[in-house]
Amino acid sequence: MELSRIFLSSLLTSNLPLFSDFGSPHAACLSLKSRLQLENTTVIDVSYVPGGSRVATLGTCDPIAHVSAPICRVQFFTNTSNTSVVHAEAWLPDQWYGRFLAQGNGGLGGCIFYDHLDYGSSMHFATVASNNGHDGYSGTPFLNHPEVINDFAYRAIHVEAVIGKQIVEAYYGRPHAKSYYLGCSTGGRQGTQAALKYPDDFDGILAGAPATDFNHLIHWSYMLGQHIGAPHPESSPAFIPSELWRVVAAEVMRQCDAIDGVRDGIVTEPDLCDFRPETLLCGRASRSRCLTEPQVEALRRIYSPLYGDNSEVIYPRYDPGAESEAIPFGPFSGEIGDLFKVCAMCSSSRPLNRH
Q1: Of 107, 112, 133, 142, which has the fewest Cβ atoms less than 10 A away?
Q2: What EC numbers are recorded for this enzyme (predicted)?
C-alpha cells in the first residue's frame, strides 16, 4: 500500500507543468541565480539562451558554442580543495523529460565539450559538463598539484553529478527521474571511476573506449611514438608516412578480414589476427607500396605487447584493423609528453628524448 502511494505521488508530481510558479522558462531562468544555495560553489552567470544562438564559452578551448534548443545556461565553479577548482556548465532545456546527463572529457581533459552539452540539451536532457579541474590540454596544471590530478582522475564527474542535480531541481521545481553519464576515451575512464567510487551518482553509465590503466596507456603511447621515430619521425628510417599506413591497412585486411569466415572489410576478430608485416618488405615491388626493414621492425614492435624489465606485460599490443587511427601518429604528441614531464619527472621543461 505504501509503495503504491509513493508511486502515485511521484507520477502525479512528474506530470505537473514545469515553471508553474514563474509562468515561463525565461522567467524561471532569470530568477534561478538568487535561488541557488550550492556548497563550495560560486555561480558565475545564469542566462536564458534562445535556440539557434551562438555563445561565448569558458576556458581556453573553443571560444564559441552553438545552442540548438532554448536553454537556461548556468556557469559555475566548485572549489574541490584549497588548491583545486572545477569549472562547469549546466544547460537546462525548456522541454525536459526528467532526465539528467553528465558528460566526460577527452585526452588530458581540460575542455568543456560544448557540442556534447548542445547534443544532450537538444535531446531534452538537463546536461552538465566540466573542464575536469583544469583548462586546456596541457599537463602543466598537474605540476605539484595533486588535488588537480584528483579532479582529473575522478572527482570532477562527481561534482557534475552532485552540483548539477541540485541546479536541476532548483530550476525545474522537482528532482530528476533518471540520471546518466556519457563519455568516451578519457570520458570512458571517468565513467568507470564514477561507477567504482560513486555508484549512486548515476542510474546508467555509457563508458565508450575507456582509457583505463591510464599510466600504462600513456607509457605505451609514448613507446609507440618512439617505435616510429619520435621525437623527430620525419628523419627516422622507421617513420611510416600516411600513404604507407594505408598500404599497411590494406595488408592487414587481406591477412585477417576472413578470420571470422566472412570477407566484409572488417577485422572482427583482431585477437586472432597474427599479422605478418614482413610480407610488405621491399623487394621487386615499387618502394611507394612497400616497407623498408626498419619500418617492418617498427610494425613488429607496434603489433606486439609492451613488456617491462621482468617480462611482465605492461600494455597490450596495437590491435590490427585500427590502422586508420595510426595515420595521424606523425610527430610525437606534446600532450603525452606533458604527462611524462609533469607527472613522472616533476618538471615542465626537461626533454623527453633522453628517457
Answers
A1: 107
A2: 3.1.1.-
